[in-house]
Amino acid sequence: MHLVYPVVVAALLFSAGVYGVLARRNAILVLMSAELMLNAVNLNLVAFDVWLRDRLHGGQVLTLFTIVIAAAEVGLGLAIVLLVFRNRETIDIDSLQTLQESREGE
After folding, report:
1. What SS3 string covers the chain?
2. 104 in a domain, yes or no?
């Protein structure tokens, strides 16, 4: 198997994820872009695991750990986004300058 093909696809996925994190204003799209970057890392881990013919399959094990961490990130991230939307009625990242609530009368 040629290693160039999955590495190029992973680089394209990672660069699309970086663009999504830097250019998007919607918090959910930023989380999806971070997941895209993690998937690019997973693709590299599995590709190098197959290319190196690792008998312990360390790349695949690390990929499983990354998937578990990504699932936890999505759960916490969406919970935070829902709480921010409930309090501020927007998920536009640029309009959220601070997480401190404004006090009435000050």
Report:
1. CCCHHHHHHHHHHHHHHHHHHHHCCEHHHHHHHHHHHHHHHHHHHHHHHHHHCCCCCHHHHHHHHHHHHHHHHHHHHHHHHHHHHHHHCCCECCCCCCCCCCCCCC
2. no
Determine the structural domain holding residue 14 and report its residue range: 4-88
Task: For 13-48, write each residue's pLDDT tens digit.
Answer: 999 999 999 998 888 899 999 999 999 999 999 999
Asked if residue 40 is part of any domain, the answer here is yes
Token pair for 87: 């309090």
Instruction: Look at residue 70 in the predicted model and tell me its pLDDT.
Output: 92
**Residue 17 within any structural domain of the chain:** yes
- Of 87, 10, 82, 83, nearest in space to 51 by CA: 10
Burial classification of residue 26, based on how many CB atoms lie within 10 Å of its CB (0-12 exposed, 13-18 middle, 19 or more buried): middle
Beta bridge partners of 92: 26
